[in-house]
Amino acid sequence: MSSLNHLHPQRSYKIAVLGDIHDAWDEEDHIALQQLDVDLALFVGDFGNESVEVVRSIASLPIPKAAIFGNHDAWYTATDWGRSKCPYDRRQEDWVQQQIDLLGLAHVGYGKLDLPQFNLSVVGARPFSWGGSTWKNERFYQERFGVHSFEESIDRIISAVQKTAHDTLIFIGHCGPTGLGDRPEDPCGRDWKPLGGDHGDPDFAAAIEQSRTLGKQFRWLRSATCTTVCATRKPSSAECSMCSRKPFT
User: DSSP per residue over 164-190, as a string?
Assistant: First the structure.
């Protein structure tokens, strides 16, 4: 849970960041999130293995929300291995597209959502990311998004930034940007065998850096392994070695 106090000091806002649900979502979670009385919910992917019903439930939440999909949300679609294990007839159904359609405007992968009630916009990094420094799942990204490389992915994210209606932005991604460390305990460090290595998204990092040329400055709202949420605003005196971001809670 994070505060949006820095956006409007005269009142307090609360956001909830939820990721890696992996099917562990039921009616009690649905109710609990509403009772937390949050102003904004940010879902950062891995609802389950193309778990349409989980996404359907989350899409029905009557609170402001934005979401991006993780690698498990295209588990039976993005890779040859996954397609070989697919439990449904792919000629008749498309669970990836069903999830996207259910979220509608709340899905911000390669896009943005303007929230005038908070005077901010949410921008999404590359959806369905598996993380790491190599371009993966070429067929999937070509067919679904017309994207063939990290360079084209950067362009898609920057295009979304340019279309935002507000100077204050929140970036969300399933995997964070590269540059946050390569130890297993680091935000995007590889914590499975073989241990170590920066598993962040290089296109996400480059898009953040390029956004600075548009007059954007950065501060962290929250970061956790395989999830990233960062806020941008101008001006800001918060600095770090990567992109003028500073952690806070």
Answer: -S-SEEEEEESS-BS-S-SSTTSTTB-
- The answer to whether the beta carbons of residues 230 and 162 sit under 8 Å apart is no
DSSP for 206-225 reads HHHHHHGGGT-EEEEEEEET
Q: Which is nearest to 213 in space by CA: 241, 232, 237?
A: 232
- Give 125-137 pLDDT, tens digit per residue: 999 999 999 999 9
CATH 3.60.21 fits 2-233, yes or no: yes
- Beta strand extents in 99-157 (DSSP E only): 112-115, 120-124
Q: Is residue 163 within 8 Å of 2, Cβ to Cβ?
A: no
What's the pTM value of the predicted model, to 2 decimals?
0.86
| Nearest-10 Cα torsion for 77, 78, 84, 90 | 20
Kindly state the average pLDDT of the residues 204-215: 89
The residues spanned by each domain of the chain are: 2-233
Strands (E), the chain: 2-3, 14-18, 40-43, 65-67, 112-115, 120-124, 168-173, 217-224, 227-233
